[in-house]
Amino acid sequence: MIEHLKALARYNCWMNGKLYAVAATLSDAARKQDRGAFFGSIHGTLNHILLADRTWMLRFTGDRSRFVSRDDGGAEMPVAALSQILYDDFIMLTHERQVTDRQILDWVLKLDPALPESELSYRNMSGAEQHHVAWWAFVHFFNHQTHHRGQLTTLLMQAGKDPGVMDLIYMLRSEPARV
Fold first, then answer.
1. Distance between CA atoms of 85 and 118, rounded to whole angstroms?
2. CA dihedral of 123, 127, 128, 129, whole degrees rounded to 10
3. Which tens digits make up the pLDDT trace of 74-91?
């Protein structure tokens, strides 16, 4: 399980790097254009993934100093909706994505092998208490990112930008051999 999570954390970094690089070639207006997606635009979808990642990482770690959502000025920002825009500025959004991706990877690399089988308790967005085996949430966390990055590839293609190969196995094959 831990090796699988490590691969997914690396994939998260790799894919976000690719998608943000392609999104950076668009104008701010094109990134923010409502394209009829669940979170409206490319920018809105990128914000949603970051907000959700930080929400889950706060649940996993309890570390408010790193994973609570913050506004452009660094002030703690209560999450009112999953469509909430954390960073209107794309450069700031990109920077915060990179910081969070590194934190996710560091967390997974130090993960106690027993943790995925332990019980996870947290409050969901509606405030209801949730209790289940932790690996369910860990796998959901990475699956959620992939789900929305799939939407992003469609949005980018609609904007005339091809993000290229996105397959996990492609990334794994291109990595140096692991011992």
1. 33
2. 30
3. 767 777 788 888 899 999
